[in-house]
Amino acid sequence: MANISLHPEGWKPAKGYANGVVAEGRTIYVGGQIGWTANQVFETDDFIEQMQQALRNIVDVVQEAGGEPKDIVRLTWFVTDKKEYLAKQSQVGKAYRDVMGYNFPAMTMVVVADLIEDQAKIEIEATAVLPA
Predict the structure, then answer these.
(1) SS3 73
(2) Is the pTM of this model over 0.85?
(3) Quick one: angle between helices 47-64 and 89-100, nearest 10?
(4) I want to staple 30 with a disulfide (CB 3.0 to 4.6 A). Which of 39, 65, 79, 126 is the partner?
(5) Strand ranges for the chain from DSSP E
(6) CA 63 to CA 99: how far, in whole Å?
(7) How far is Cα 132 from Cα 114, in angstroms, rounded to an integer?
(8) Which residues contact residue 120 at a Cβ distance below 8 angstroms, ignoring those fewer than 6 apart?
(9) Which H or E element spans position 21?
(10) How confident is the model over 42-100, as pLDDT tens digits?
């Protein structure tokens, strides 16, 4: 069974995310990923580049289990600067699609005061469901 996005009748369209997803199979829980490389090195302080690296890290973990971006059913984003995120919305969308394609899982965005790694501007956790 493929993952199916849920859109209740009469609701305004969700843009860039799903309100809910139905999935069946093996579940992968990906811990929070930040914008550093596999060697735990930040190559940039740029929000968009850190976001892309965090998403690539998530995809790497999912691929390790035999999955791919389309198998990701939920993302929770933690950002330290709401204004920076909102100011870069068009860049966020393009950068997201460059890594994730047109898979738009259920998503939550949370603004936080800080992250454990001082240089991190974003942390993203994920849930993926692979076919049984």
Answers:
(1) strand
(2) yes
(3) 20
(4) 126
(5) 4-6, 20-22, 26-34, 72-79, 106-111, 122-130
(6) 13
(7) 38
(8) 34, 35, 36, 42, 50, 80
(9) strand 20-22
(10) 999 999 999 999 999 999 999 999 999 999 999 999 999 999 999 999 899 999 999 99
